[in-house]
Amino acid sequence: MISEKDMKSFAELPSLKCLDLTTNNISVIETAFFTSLEKLSSLHLSKNNISELEGGLFTSLSTLKGLNLGNNMISIIRNRTFSSLAILEQLHLDNNNISVLEVGAFADCSFSQFRALCSGEGFCEAYELHVTCSL
With respect to CATH, is domain 38-135 assigned 3.80.10.10? Predict the structure, then answer.
C-alpha cells in the first residue's frame, strides 16, 4: 500500500511515463502529487477509495493519454477536473457512484474515446462516446 506521504515522492521522478497506483487504499488526491510528472502518459488509480475529484486536479498532466479511475467511490466531479487534458485518449470512470458532474468538468479537453459506467441509483448506464469537449 502506498500512503499519501509516499505519493509525494513521485515528485522526484519527472521522467516517469506510467504510474499504476491500483488497489492502494488512496482516498484523497492532491493536485501537488502530480505537478512534476510532466511526461506521464498513463495513470491508473482504479480500485481505491477516491470519492471526489477536485477542479484542476490533473492540470499539470498535459501529456496524459490514459486515465483509469474505475472502481472507486467517486460521487462528485468538480468543474475543470479534466481541463488541460488535450491529448487524453481514454478515461475510465466505470463502477463509481457519480451523482454530481459539475458544468465544465471536461472544459478544454478532447477525447477520442470516453467510457463510463455509473452504478449509483441508476444515474446513468454504460456508454461509449466519441466526443470533443469545449465546455
Answer: yes
**Residue 95, number of CB atoms within 10 A of its CB:** 18
Strand runs labelled E in 6-68: 18-20, 42-44, 52-53, 66-68
Domain ranges of the chain: 38-135
Query: Residue 92's Cα: distance from chain center in Å?
Result: 8
Residue 29 is which amino acid?
Answer: I
Using CA atoms, how far apart are residues 121 and 123, in angstroms rounded to an integer?
A: 5
Edge-to-edge strand ranges of the sheet holding 113-116: 18-20, 42-44, 66-68, 90-92, 113-116, 127-129
Please tell me the distance from the alpha carbon of residue 132 to that of residue 76, in angstroms, as a whole number.
22
Q: Could you report the per-residue pLDDT of 58-87, keeping only the tens digit for each?
A: 989 999 999 999 999 999 999 999 888 888
pLDDT tens-digit map of 5-35:
676 677 788 899 999 999 999 999 888 888 8
